[in-house]
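Issue 218. Parser rejects a valid record. Input:
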Amino acid sequence: PLNECKLIGKPTRRHPKEAWAKVTGEAEFGIDIRVPNMKYAVVIHPTIFGAKVKSFDATSALKKEGILKVKQISTGIAIIAEHWWTAKEAVNDINVVWDEGAFKNVSSKTLDKDYSELLNKNGNIMRKDGDSEKAFKEAAKVIEAEYNLPFLAHAAMEPLNAVVHDKNGSAEVWTGGQLQSIYRDVTAKVLGIESKDVTYN
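Output the parser choked on:
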């Protein structure tokens, strides 16, 4: 609720020390955080949007020293280990069979084709200012160009990461995400605690 927000609608000012820490490389990011008895997880995600795990074999990975658990989650396979590199290397030891779903044949080429076909159909006019057809007819020169960009995910500067410190009844989270309220609620749900007991950095 808006009345519970502490910063929305109020002027905020970044502290000069924050900028200095970032310029000098002293700033701590989510990936720099360390907490007691910390474990590391790496997730194997599908290469096709919407694909789900059909089956997986982690026998080889579980034989490696430092691997604590391999678990199927809603978005893929999570590997939990004593060290980050151990978890990262175990990705190569796990065989995952994916149910590729409805988007298995979708690619940048098929999207370009679909979008080009849509351009030739009449759409809904949301706003019309002036007479564009007349302007084109009367123009001394008309330049046409087509630009295509692949369908890409948002490119974060920082490696995607999150640290969650479970404090038995409360939790503290460090991550570079932009949906703090949602992440707080999800963390609370996973840990079985109240959202108000999650501190988000």
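Fixed in the parser; the record now loads. Helices lie at 16-24, 59-62, 84-90, 108-119, 132-138, 180-191.
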